[in-house]
Amino acid sequence: MISKSFFSGFCFFNESELFDEYIIRNDFTISGFSYGAIKAFEEALNTQDRVDKLQLFSPAFFQNFDEKFKRTQLMYFKKDENTYVQTFLNNVIYPSNKDISKYFKLGTAQELEELLTYVWNEEKLQKLVDKGVKIEVYLGADDKIIDSLKVKEFFQKFATIYYIKEKGHLL
């Protein structure tokens, strides 16, 4: 039995209910949102427990951005984390106006650096597929955090992609 089935996004805590219309809750499904998608992927890859499905909601995907962009994001966070996080959260909820305050947990510079520099590895994705894990990737067409078209293009040979019009990072 898998001890943890949902992994939270950067600056989020316990937000899985936001994905209730998509999420599959059982002992053999692992899911994660944004930064949590990285954690969910690594859990699925490294666990010895049975995993049938991996659900990645708006996976943090920044390998298509240059190092200057990543350094700048970290610099702005370290300079004024409150302003950075407020802008970030406004971009996360776009185009909706959902109140996400009850899910807020201030992220750390270390977490931000990890999500910005994480590289999704095709060999590792293929390893999961070869183990029989079905991967689903959920993307909002109007995402202001990641380039959802680039993410779709990257994951399409490993996963079923749900590309949702008029939705952002939070789906």
Describe this structure in words.
With 171 residues, the chain is an alpha/beta fold. The protein has one domain: 3-Layer(aba) Sandwich (Rossmann fold), CATH 3.40.50.1820. The chain contains 6 helices and 5 strands. It has helices at 35-46, 67-79, 81-93, 109-117, 122-130, 148-155, and strands spanning 6-7, 29-33, 53-57, 134-140, 160-164. It has a 5-stranded parallel sheet, covered by helices on one side. Helix 2 (67-79) runs antiparallel to helix 4 (109-117). The chain is globular. The two termini are 28 Å apart.
**Over the alpha carbons, how many angstroms does the gyration radius reach?**
15 Å
Report the sheet with the most strands, covering strand number, pairing sense and barrel closure.
Answer: 5 strands, parallel
Q: Helix and strand succession?
A: EEHEHHHHEHE
CATH architecture descriptor: 3-Layer(aba) Sandwich
**Low-pLDDT segments:** none
Spell out the key features of this protein:
171 residues, AB_hydrolase_fold, 37% helix, five-stranded parallel β-sheet, Pimelyl-ACP methyl ester esterase BioV, alpha/beta, 5 strands, 6 helices, Rossmann fold
Layout: helices, strands, pairs:
Elements: E1 6-7, E2 29-33, H1 35-46, E3 53-57, H2 67-79, H3 81-93, H4 109-117, H5 122-130, E4 134-140, H6 148-155, E5 160-164
Parallel strand pairs: 1-2, 2-3, 3-4, 4-5
Helix pairs in contact: 2-3, 2-4
